[in-house]
Amino acid sequence: MKKVFVGILAVCLIICGLNMRADVDRLDPYSVTSEGGCVRADTHISAQTALSRLGGTVLWTEEFDGVTVTYAYSDFVRGYETVRGMRVNIMIAERAEYTAVGMPLLTGSY
């Protein structure tokens, strides 16, 4: 019974990983990294295009030092973090030359 449970758990984890990979592939990334449960995709598409491809709804935006940061939620992206009391599973930092998309959040510098 324990082996069956472990097998089912492994299949579920693989399926979740494939679904996240499909989300990332929609962004045409030139770089993909993963850290602490967050996936980051660096791309040249706009924040609006990224949101459209992920089916995201903007919750709020912030701007600082030439970077526009967008916090969004999509029913199509697995998982979320609670920020300001809201579920966030897409965080996008956009500069003139590139866009970084984090699911559920961006970590590190952007």
Whole-Å distance between the termini?
Answer: 46 Å
Please mark out the parts with pLDDT under 50 across 5 or more consecutive residues, or reply none.
4-20
Indicate the overall shape.
globular
Overall SS class: alpha+beta
Order of helices and strands: HEEHEEEEEE
Number of helices: 2
Share in β-strands: 35-45%
Order of the strands making up the biggest sheet: 1-2-8-7-4-3
How many β-strands, per DSSP?
Answer: 8
- What's the pLDDT, averaged over the residues? 81
The oligomerization state is: single chain
What Rg is obtained from the alpha carbons, in whole angstroms? 15 Å
Helix content: 25-40%
Question: What are the key terms here?
Answer:
110 residues; alpha+beta; six-stranded antiparallel β-sheet; two-stranded antiparallel sheet
